[in-house]
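for the record, two folds in this file. i put them one after another cuz i was lazy. first one right below, seq on top, structure tokens after. the second one comes after a little note so u can tell where it starts
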Amino acid sequence: MNINLAILLLVTLVWGTTFPLLKTAASTLGGVEISAIRFVIAAVCMAPFLRQVPKRTWHDGALLGLLALVSYVAQAVGIQFISSNRSAFLTSLAVLIVPILGLFWGARLSTTTLAAALMACTGIGFMSWEGGLHWMGDSATLLCALAYALYVVVLSQRVIGHDVRQLAATQIVFMALASSLWLGVAGIGNDSLETLLTRLTPHWTGMLYLGAVATAGMLVLQALAQRKVSADKAAVIYATEPVFAALFAWLWLGEMLSGRAALGGAMVVGAVILSELTPGQKQASTAS
């Protein structure tokens, strides 16, 4: 496995730690509040990279930031109504959406890629599926999966020619401004802004981690690695997120995996290995 795939695995490992944190924070904070706070923290971390940013980087950063913002907020909203395991499964459907979206940009869908994506989703289903439906939670999380699939495809197309730190910084600044404005508008007519600091206090450590590490740090690494990794192959790597989430739940919380969940995890790992047997989709031309 090359260094870029190893970086994407590291990114996914860190993301796997965020589901319990999001679930805990959602006990007192709304989805927009969680998103605004983590993005503002991330923007402060990335501020040194905002000097002399080219116009094209601002343009592409705004587009990527919009897609990422929709994804993060939708996931945070959905997880208020469904379990972190179910959220992980529905979010993972992006692994199937990415190669399908690639067809609209002229990419060719290989049989191996499709098989790896199906294997990954099936494995995550074994790990996380709990049955039952929740219209609001499921719909929001499916929107998260669609927005994130678009993000992965567009990032692979637009990342070439940018300083990845500046590209990540512009995304984050846009996400911080948009989510803060959203938070302000949502707080009109109620006392949510007045009580925000009190409700945030128990979650400061987790929010600092979400902002500085899981958002700022991982967006830089993700952009760096996706310069050399096709969108469909990256999506299969990202499907390991629930596997890492289950691993950390076992290490930190003592949660045990059932036989079915262990089989699902093995299938996801197998999907990653299978994806290595194909070069992936041909990258679409970089947009100007």
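(here's the note) second protein begins now
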Amino acid sequence: MFKTRITEMLGIEYPIICGGMQYVSNAELVAAVSNAGGMGILAVGNFGSKEELRDEIRKIKTLTDKPFGVNVTFMPTLRIIDREGLIDTAIEEGASAIETSGRITEAHVQRIKKGKVKHIHKVARLRDARTAERLGVDAVAIVGFECGGAPPMDEITTFIQVPLVADAVNLPVIAGGGIGDARGFVAALALGADGVVMGTRFMITKESLVHQNVKDAVIRAKETDTVPVLRSLRSMERVFKNEVARKVIEMENRGATLDELVPLISGDKVRASWEKGDINSAILPCGQVIGLINEVPTVKEVIDDMVSGAEDILNRLTRMIRAG
């Protein structure tokens, strides 16, 4: 039903992508999304070496024969060793796409292009989408202020970001931020997107490794229970509003440096919190879409409900047009 430039480019059934979430997007989650007709993306920030990444990709290939991607972030606050080597490993092991974020160069784009895989670059600003097109990527993902992880510093929402970028570039556009059900899916397509990328919605599924305590906390949460942090470092993240997030904001307001904040925001703490379920021990990236999440379905149920719900919405809109 949904044939877009993204489904054709990636060879997937539905234009629905699970973003590469650090410490969350593992082989099981990636394969579940790909098997359900979308595309799962593995996050290389989970791994300390090319060998570990290679093993996880090979595990994905035992779980699915569908297309999958690998995320390599160039965000300055994430200390990833040998990004170029990780890109090469992902290409060698048969990834269908590389998703990048942060500041990339023409050399990075050419490296991926030479590997004959599709390159999706995730941005939070219109000007960065234009730059990515000029550098030669295959598609851009644009996120709004609602999104978990790294929202735009200038606080522009998804409803504005998507049409701005869709009008500005000739590339396929993927929309992210605040999308968690059929309504957001259809809205993104109506705004000019060729597909959607979701993180928080897939994080709260049965296949996700996130501890049940975290899933329960998200289900209980309201849309107001997230907060942007690390604005002072110009590397803003939207996270769950917990004790650590409040402490980080307090320290930022006092002018804390990155070195002072590291003990609170370290990746090791985030990983441990996801796995052990202590929701007050780390900053936990998630988006405002938590206000729309009230159950823990399977990945397939998420995608099937989005697709069937989208059909219902489009039929309803068609009846409205005819009635007019």
